[in-house]
Task: structure prediction
Amino acid sequence: RLTYIYHSGFALLDEGGTVIIDYYKDSADRPLTGVVHGELLSRPGKLYVLASHVHADHFNPEVLTWKEMRSDIQYLFSKDILENGKAGLLDACYLDKGNVWTDGVLEVEAFGSTDAGVSFLLRWDGKTIFHAGDLNNWHWKEESTEEVREAERAYFDELDALARRTDRMDLVMLPVDPRLGEDYMLGAKQFVDKFRVDRFVPMHFDDAYDKANAFREYAESRGVRFVELNYKGEGFMI
Result:
């Protein structure tokens, strides 16, 4: 099961445990309420907490307080969170690009980003799952043509590295960010053009649900099942 928390935050659930990725804030506006505090933190099974990089919209230090209520929690953070002093050496297992962590149940491989930190390739319960973090073709209208080309080259380099590891994924969570302007879907289009993706979920769009869900048409034209998001805390069977 997949649960959308907010922004780039998601939870993956199976009978044996829960994986929370890039927790920023809970699905409800009031503190300590929402699907995470109301359900996931007390859910049976092991809890894995992943953070792709140090930016505040992907890493909330509050997650470190969860160990006070969970003895079976495993933190897996990008190394830049440690380097920026947002967590201590013993708080988590820190991953850099190229690192692989596994406990025999969950495998997490760190790939690159075109911004800070890493992206995550997960193998769990027979599924291959990709969470992009801030990996995207970040091209901005005010940049020069050469800067736009360089951003695209950097993105393609990271996709090529990922393709050397796998050419197909069961579930992909990747930015579809309207702030980029008229070409805001470009990175997502290039991703589904390159990989065989079963299900695609947009992220990093704040509350612009209509804009994010507009990617459905292109995704489905490439044979991809699109997961439409409509509210925080929404759940889906995968």
In short: The first strand starts at residue 2 and ends at 6.
